[in-house]
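pipeline/complex-builder :: batch 7 item 3
reading input block
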Amino acid sequence: MYNKKGIEITFSWIFAIIAGTLIFLFFIGFAADNMDLFGKLTAMRVSEEMNSAFTGLKTGLVSTSLSFNKEIKLQFKCIGEKKEKLIVGYRSGKNLYDNLVFSPEELNGNEFLLMTKSWNVPYKVDNFIFISDNRKYSLNGLNQNEFDKLKNDLPDDFKSLIERNTGNGKIIEFKSDNSPNTCNKLTNDIVYYFIDTNNGEMYGKICTKNMENKSPLDFYGDDMIYAAIFGDQFDCLYPLIGEKFNIMRDVYLQKIGRITGCDKGGLQNAITSMDTINKIQTYFDSIDTKNKALIGKGCNVF
Amino acid sequence: MYFKKGQLEIGITMMTLLVFIILLIVSLVFYFRLAQGSIKETQQEILDEKYSGLLDALINLPELRYSLSGAEKNCLDAVKLQNFQVITKNSLARSEYYNNLLGDVNAIWIDAIDISGDKVVKKKNEYLIYRNQGNGLIYSSPVSICDGDKFEIGILNIQIK
């Protein structure tokens, strides 16, 4: 036997629940979109604006801090070769195609340190951008003078982050020796270095923890060492550094080709010969001297 | 003919449901039209920011910037500007690099401004830096151009797909 009144009550309840749920979801959606409840819009804006800020840091040398109103998680992840992606929170990602940003892979906090360094070979190739929180970096194996030289080139905020032989935080080992032909399995990054007697710059090869059985990477200059110290992306951004190096070499060879009225043969030959990063040490001073001589004759190359 | 009480109440409930659905549809249409307007506005803001950033990026590229004795000057290098197209098309990898960097940019060029006495003459396409096919919105920024001892003023333009 049917209880019609019972069916009617159940129907009213189902209707009330469905209608209530729809109204509730509508308001939740409205609030989420307009109040940015899940931080999606903020994350998108932060990643877009940080990328613009990095682009603006391509010229000039800067030391500053990035402050946010609330605790934020930044990730600088390598996506394949030559590509780095900035992820803000867990939501928004932005490819940093042309910006060489070196930082720990993951940063948490509401204030981060930022500095830029220009990599010159001797003409400028690009600005490297460094970001860190307050974590420490222990440089093991350098003598006091070498450590002081690396430290003194840093802005004050970054100076306090690096220590010598303490073993705190990220450890980078320095060995004044030839590197092996292939990198071994490592627990810490290793810098195999020599000092350029002409200008005191460090050069050599670097093996990072991610480079087991791969050839060590050539470096020239303190700026590239900072990239290995402060960045977890050194090995994956290295091809992009190489690409930028080749681009600027071509730029100046093209420019020399258009200069008339000065004997630019020596500079042209030196830049042509400096076709890989490991040859910078051989040609650095020669290129610098020849460029200055050309400037003296009214023919500026760089 | 008359309705039973139960049928009448079901009818009332159905009417209420109908009115509710109509109100819901009307409010959703109204809300999404408002939201669409707001999305378009935000999209335009983001695009403006993006392309202003790209103009800044171009002005700051070491590939285009003038330097003297290793120190960068606050102007673009006329010779580098003339060579840029050759540099970007040097290899497939190089083209890919600049396509990634420049994204949906159709063309980049500089109109030089020639000021002689009281006359201001705009020399169009004085430096054609980058060229793909197509038309689109143009973003511009004033720049200075150095060519040895000579100094020029220009307008850097980028055209977006």
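note: The interface with chain A takes residues 6, 9-10, 13, 16-17, 20, 24, 27-28, 31, 35, 46, 49-50, 52-54, 56-57, 60-63, 65, 67-70, 72, 77, 79-80, 82-83, 86-87, 90, 93-94, 97, 100-101, 148 of chain B (CB under 8 Å).
queue -> next item
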